[in-house]
Amino acid sequence: MTDAQAAFAKPSPKQMADAIRVLAMDGVEKAKSGHPGMPMGMADVATVLYSKFLKFDASRPDWADRDRFILSAGHGSMLIYSLLHLTGYKDATREQLENFRQWGAKTAGHPEYGHMTGIETTTGPLGQGIANSVGFALAERHLAARFGSDLVDHRTWVIAGDGCLMEGVSQEAIALAGRLKLNKLCVMWDDNEITIDGKVSLSDNTDQLARFKASGWAVKAIDGHDHKQIQKALAWATKQSKPTLIACKTKIGKGAATMEGSHKTHGAALGATEIAATRQALHWSFDPFDLPEGIQKAWAKVGKQGAKARKGWEARLLNHAQRDDFTRAMAGDLPTGAFEALDAKLKELVSSQPALATRQSSGEALETVFNAIPELIGGSADLTGSNNTFVKNTQILDAPDYAGRYVNWGVREHGMASAMNGMALHGGVIPYAGTFMVFSDYSRPAIRLAALMGVRVVHVLTHDSIGLGEDGPTHQPVEHLAALRAIPNLMVFRPADTVEALECWQVALQHKKTPSGMCLSRQKTPAVRLTDAGENLSRKGAYELKAANGEAKVTLFGTGTEVALALKAAETLEAEGVPTRVVSVPCFELFEQQPKAYQDAVIGRGTVRVAVEAAIKQGWERFIGEDGGFVGLTGFGASAPAEVLYREFGITAEAVVEAAKARL
Amino acid sequence: MTDAQAAFAKPSPKQMADAIRVLAMDGVEKAKSGHPGMPMGMADVATVLYSKFLKFDASRPDWADRDRFILSAGHGSMLIYSLLHLTGYKDATREQLENFRQWGAKTAGHPEYGHMTGIETTTGPLGQGIANSVGFALAERHLAARFGSDLVDHRTWVIAGDGCLMEGVSQEAIALAGRLKLNKLCVMWDDNEITIDGKVSLSDNTDQLARFKASGWAVKAIDGHDHKQIQKALAWATKQSKPTLIACKTKIGKGAATMEGSHKTHGAALGATEIAATRQALHWSFDPFDLPEGIQKAWAKVGKQGAKARKGWEARLLNHAQRDDFTRAMAGDLPTGAFEALDAKLKELVSSQPALATRQSSGEALETVFNAIPELIGGSADLTGSNNTFVKNTQILDAPDYAGRYVNWGVREHGMASAMNGMALHGGVIPYAGTFMVFSDYSRPAIRLAALMGVRVVHVLTHDSIGLGEDGPTHQPVEHLAALRAIPNLMVFRPADTVEALECWQVALQHKKTPSGMCLSRQKTPAVRLTDAGENLSRKGAYELKAANGEAKVTLFGTGTEVALALKAAETLEAEGVPTRVVSVPCFELFEQQPKAYQDAVIGRGTVRVAVEAAIKQGWERFIGEDGGFVGLTGFGASAPAEVLYREFGITAEAVVEAAKARL
Prior knowledge:
homodimer, alpha/beta, Rossmann fold, 3 domains, six-stranded parallel β-sheet, five-stranded parallel β-sheet, 28 helices, 41% helix, 13% strand, elongated
């Protein structure tokens, strides 16, 4: 052993933290891009957390009862990559660190869920991690109530930065966590007083401790470089009956020879000179990415210290009465017979289907699956009655027993959507929740992340058009169908009646890696699916609902409440001797996944094509071509009763007929 | 005078408030839709505010130095309609109240800016009003610094509900207001403990007073039905050196005979029986919308009591040295010569234009106009250096003197965008501010309202594609161009080089009633406009940048950094003997407004059409038809250097050539 190695033979906690500092510095330097300041600043806190508190076993990143660590300040991704590497996660290799931010590497600029094991959620857009964590912590409490603390008893630890706390979504998250008394949630705030533009005080002077306290948190401030204080604070956190905030006063870029404390360490490589000087100051004489043996061993030991607990847990699981159900739920598989009632209802409906608002149809779909799929957790952003998200007799999910299955999210669309992501990522639950469709704009950043991560959450978006009526243009989505359809890997459903609503719900729940938006009407609409197709037609995204009498001259496309208008228009055209098909399009995204031959057959090129949807045209050219007709909107709505709006904006069967005739 | 009339001959403040209650109840009843609970609950506070504190003159709703009243809880729109009617605003007629929520009426379900005078901003989406108000109050402070308190010295009063305070954007707003010491901002919180789903405590137990205090506000709690307490509290608010929160404990639906305090009064008509009983309880024996003379007179007097102050102000304006500048600025007109430097720069550029990132080009555009247009107020959500929004030597807009012209918004995209709306609505300033384009998702609800209201704000959205590089998919917009283009009345610009950037900025600033998004690259791009067109070509939305050599066989479309790729592809095609045009498309929205003949000429039907944009295809069919080629993305990006991403995702000149050839 060389002298250099000997100095690390039995590394101090400070030296173990320095390993993170050096790796972070090296990774960013090699990539010539990244954020070294935060990993260096929070290395001490992370070291104490991982070595003394975090329940995990690096060899089993999928251990269901592990503690969850969430790096809300995702730009500090080298912190988590370093930790996963040091503790021995299999795919956190040295090569991955060396390829930080490069094509094909698992070490993306911000931590990406699904790229490297040990990354619990994708973070980077500020505030999302802290809001996710509420979902993680809530899922834990619920599953503990369902399966017992023998199987479920873990904590959620979050590192958040000033940016996370400035984002509005953090307020929604902390208010929720406080209200729900999520005492196993601990946020370690990297209180370094620095943001990109300079000092935090340039734009903020909030007393964060007071703010969290006002929302029902237990709070504490410490020196984030003093390992004893950190240890004491984390121990304190585990004993509170409320969620905990620990303000960790740190220096950004801690350890950097001359740049420590400067916002210049935030978002750029330190440069060769500074790195050399820093190595010297840390007595770290090893090449980039090289680690002294003593450090390697000490950290590897940390990675293994949870093995015993994990094995004990596995033994408990093996003999647990609910073992199979727990394993199935955590795997995200649906119970056998999940759709028995739904299928029965479908059969029943095609013989007699009443006119309902599609939000009611969605409510009926939920009635058929809610008891059959105990993982379903409902909720609404304070619009329960309007969203039809509440299945009767459901217990509210709330402290102290957490066994309930319906969350009162409050007027917090963004926090709700972000927490839903956390719930789905935790596993064992399938969250769905409602708001008005227009407010999908509020939750959009979290919906995007659901799509990027590929998690199963269902957004129930009611009042899906000018059919909302009197509440007026602020509440009427007109561009939201297009805007949601624009998000890759998001299934945007707009069912036309109860049969389609049931089908769409089935598809949504069957897709384990795809979030859905269920777009639903406020107003009643007649049933359009009156015969038994023997299969789930909505699964194809679009299908011929009504064939033409004879060789089709016209194809009419519609979604949701406008399918009925298309059918009525087809009736008129047929009566005038124009053979007309009607295609219902419940989901653009799924249609794109069909074989080309099917797509061509459904689209019916060569026929006159007209689409009707109470929204803007964008995206419909895919179906109607450049010359097709479109009956919809070109601007915002207005305040008036729904039927008046449809008439005044010219979204009528007559207009559809006219658009077709003009092209015949 | 009848006995019934006599009882109101000299109405008490309580009786004046009852007039609001009855009108709100009647308006909602007639519409059979609306929200009576909040207007009834806050009638007392509103009565004291309007009769004792609000500086206004109903006959001159455009008086520049009026106090601003913002109903953040916009669903209580009958409160403001009643107040405007009672105080004598010309267009707040009885007929308008009777046509509440009907087609063509100015009394929309939620207050709509531009429909009825006296409505300062569109509210309804919760949290927006309170965030707007920060912009109103900041604009006031700035203009007072610029023009003196002789001309600018007014307050911003806000009524906000529980929903507003639960929304995350409210936290961004209150933190900003506290930091900026906006002491002339007063929020009256309707603390009625009720939301739609029931008691506030179902989803929230935040100590709001402590929360506001933590962000630097002065706070006070009162009985919101006790006129003396209200008066004392509002007087107190006018004397603070911080923004003020007054928690007004109220009963929702106050005055309703049996439903007072129930969430059932929130969002539905009370019904004939309850209304009759309530009339009796209030000793109000008049027909719907009928008002006793005494009430009419007393309220009309309130509407006129600001006339003297207004006249005094007009006299001061008449003799003010800065009269013309003030009047011009408040009218939203640009100074003479606003674009002299910009025009000069344009001429200079076409002879020698360097390769720049378009965010740098945008920065150069700002350099040419910032000093020429003193109304411009810049800012960034903590990405100043990245957004190129800061013009050198600009003073920061901050307490205590507020004369600066650059706002450190902090990591608060949503609050920033909403406050910008408030600034623009206040008048006298033209706000622009930056963030990464992907975070337009965070500010989207406010951008939508800017478009709906028609206000001039410019969102500088940098890092507009995978060209952002290593930060990865969380930070790379791929669907955002489509999603922003979907918003009606929003100009989404994506300039290709410095010439286009200058042109787009000119167009954005010249549109008084249209918000803009300026989508700008992180990475450098070669100049494409190398000759002097003698006009602002970007104004047309799309134009032929390069003609074909001979009869065009191919048309290539591109935007932003991809225009250079289209040009390169055209070169290859031309070299191979394929006459190829290139069309630059800096703004879809403006192109749609051109004459059809121009549109047809630019689109070039009959040629093979291919578009290239580092984003999803949605919306491009408008240009390329059903069979056109599209070189872009179908999903999310990845983390790697920009040039690697362009290559790996196949967004190259070669791919464009190939797409064209495949169709020839």
